[in-house]
Specification:
11 helices; 347 residues; two-stranded antiparallel sheet; mainly alpha
């Protein structure tokens, strides 16, 4: 026999509330970002409806902390709270799956087979949501199945209902995982579409993992009671919150990638403004001008030969003209014979 302490219950409530707060914040940022860019579609509208119900869903966590004389602690209030939690839970969970299916659909162009298949999955999930809720309501609606323990309503699910809910959840998540994998395997997609499908695959994997983890408390032995029922309810809160977070990963990761890319581009442009010579190293990439200047300097200190044509009428076949050595020789003669130099008197 396991019993949850009040501190453990409070800690689970705070954890679930924190997870849902993150999910609500990410969803609101998603809606604002999509609306500002003019890219709102059905996947955004579906998750927006889910997040409105999520405010009601999270508030039911704290109804048990109201005053003992409140109407919420009456028999009718406890039963109404239970069915309200069940309704909002199913809508939130299946809305996240529907939004993921539509997010996969919008990656592809209209008329594509994968797009039509993903939209068909969204309609299938609507039918599965109605079926799951109907089966749960039919079993928990009977008085022998719904009991009130410590001021909280608990429904003893049959094994058939547990198996059906688990099979439907796992199969729907597997459909969402197989669709991106099929496209990776069969079709060579552009880089942007491959990135979006990878994010969808990771989001579906997170949802499937949480769903299987919560199923452990569904099939736990009865010796875990009454903590088993309480843990199952608390972890369903966490499961729905994580499903909403994973549903928003497609938009959130894409948004941060764009912000990072813009930051890198702006930093590169600032670097070009500060050090423009780094982009155009003219002194390094133009060695020809340096070599030509060196050649000119070398020619100015050497002999230059001018060869005339061999068939010319001149007597000498070539004329030799000296530049630097001629003046240096005259300068040495002037120093040695200054008396006979006719230009020494003018200096």
């Amino acid at each position: 026999m396991l019993v949850l302490s009040s501190s453990a219950t409070l800690g689970l409530n705070l954890t679930a509330t924190f997870v849902h707060a993150i999910a609500i914040a990410l969803t609101l940022c998603r809606i604002f970002h999509r609306k500002r860019g003019g890219r709102l579609w059905w996947d955004d509208l579906v998750i927006f409806v889910a997040i409105i119900l999520d405010f009601v869903y999270v508030s039911t966590l704290w109804w048990s902390y109201t005053e003992p004389g409140s109407v919420l602690h009456t028999h009718g209030g406890v039963v109404a709270r239970y069915f309200l939690v069940v309704v909002t839970f199913f809508i939130i969970m299946w809305s996240s799956r529907i939004s993921l299916a539509l997010a996969i659909a919008r990656v592809f162009n209209p008329g594509d087979k994968t797009r039509r298949f993903a939209i068909g999955l969204a309609f299938l999930f609507v039918c599965l949501c109605i079926t799951s809720f109907g089966a749960t309501s039919a079993i928990c609606g009977s008085a022998d199945r719904l009991t009130i323990v410590n001021g909280k309503a608990q429904c003893r699910w049959t094994n058939a209902l547990k198996a059906m809910i688990l099979a439907v959840n796992v199969l729907s998540d597997m459909f969402l995982m197989v669709t991106p994998l099929y496209q990776f395997w069969r079709v060579r997609l552009p880089l942007k579409q491959r990135r979006l499908l990878k994010i969808c695959l990771v989001a579906n994997f997170i949802t499937t993992t949480v769903t299987i983890g919560c199923a452990i408390f569904q099939f736990a032995p009865t010796s875990w009671e009454p903590a088993r029922a309480e843990l199952r309810i608390k972890f369903t809160y966490i499961e729905s919150g994580i499903s909403l977070i994973s549903c928003n990963l497609v938009v959130v990761v894409t948004f941060f990638c764009r912000v990072t890319r813009r930051t890198n581009v702006s930093q590169a442009s600032e670097a070009e403004e500060i050090c423009p010579e780094l982009e155009q190293p003219s002194d390094v990439t133009r060695p020809r001008s340096i070599l030509s200047s060196l050649v000119l300097t070398e020619i100015s200190d050497a002999y230059v030969y001018e060869y005339g044509p061999s068939s010319s009428s001149r007597d000498s076949p070539s004329t030799i003209r000296s530049t630097g050595s001629f003046f240096s020789a005259n300068h040495s003669i002037a120093n040695s014979n200054s008396d006979t130099n006719p230009y020494s008197a003018e200096g």
